[in-house]
Write a structure and sequence with these properties.
With 291 residues, the chain is α+β, with helices and mostly antiparallel strands. 53% of the residues lie in helices and 12% in strands.
């Protein structure tokens, strides 16, 4: 009889382990089927144990009249037995362990961080909506100034060569004489203008070196051979090299003047300068007289 009791207990533990593993592995779609299968396995084992016990004692109980679950061995802290036949309630044990499971702190931190980021993004969107549209404002001011001054824009490709391309367009349309004393060639492009700026800066190093943060030789190479953007120094060099008074119309309506310093003989040109309207950043367009 004791041998049979031990055998039954071991079979109960084995079944409990199997059903617990099945339920842990189940998905939302398969959970109901897995639960039904586990219930059927428990029922079958309970029936078999009841039959085997009845064959020994005639009433399904051990000799001392106690149920099988109280036959004296350690139950491994199991849940109450089912139907008086000695089967552990695996589903009840599984549910209890799930309820007692500690919250996942990492998931909680991630959720809190995501909520904080979402709140920050919302605040940024509200602040952005209240800011002025710098690009649109710049466009409107430029249109107004162009109309009042009788100028139209010649769009220049927005790349690192835009200043030099805009100067080249002004030289061609205004038939300005080159430093060599000749009128500009129709093939003049940004490359030629870059070389003129680089050569002038090299020949007048004392005028430009104090404003550089690198050796003048390196700076000149960038002007000649790269797409490095041009700015105030290059405009000053070109104004003096070509004998120009450069008028730069700003996006806020101001006009910045860069003069050649040669008196009334200097020829005026017009450029438009944008800070906000182009994706690559600062940009120059050429301005021509309205037809």
């Amino acid at each position: 009889m004791e041998e049979l009791v031990r055998k039954h207990r071991q079979e109960q533990r084995d079944l409990q382990s199997r059903t617990t593993q099945k339920k842990k592995s189940a998905t939302k779609k398969t959970r109901k089927g897995v639960n039904d299968e586990c219930t059927e396995l428990e029922r079958q084992l309970a029936e078999r144990h009841k039959t085997e016990l009845a064959g020994v004692t005639g009433d399904g109980h051990v000799d001392d009249g106690e149920p099988l679950s109280d036959a004296g061995e350690d139950n491994h802290d199991t849940t109450p037995l089912e139907n008086g036949a000695g089967i552990f309630s695996v589903a009840e044990k599984f549910d209890t362990s799930a309820q007692n499971k500690k919250p996942n702190r990492q998931k909680a931190r991630l959720a809190r961080r995501a909520a904080e980021q979402e709140a920050a993004a919302s605040r940024a969107a509200v602040e952005a909506a209240s800011l002025p549209d710098l690009r649109e404002n710049e466009r409107l001011v430029m249109q107004r100034e162009l109309k009042s001054r009788g100028l139209v824009e010649k769009d220049i490709r927005p790349d690192g060569h835009c200043l030099y391309s805009a100067i080249a367009d002004q030289l061609l349309t205004r038939r300005i004489i080159q430093p060599s004393g000749e009128f500009v060639d129709v093939k003049l492009d940004y490359k030629s203008v870059r070389h003129v700026a680089a050569d002038f800066i090299s020949k007048h190093a004392d005028d430009f070196s104090p404003f550089l943060e690198e050796p003048l030789e390196d700076y000149v190479v960038k002007i000649k051979d790269t797409a490095e953007w041009g700015g105030q120094l290059e405009l000053s060099a070109l104004a003096r090299a070509y004998g120009l008074n450069v008028n730069v119309l700003q996006g806020d309506g101001r006009v910045e003047k860069i003069e050649a310093g040669v008196g009334e003989s200097a020829q005026p040109i017009w450029l438009a300068y944008y800070r906000h309207s182009f994706g690559l950043g600062e940009h120059y367009n050429s301005l021509r007289a309205s037809p």
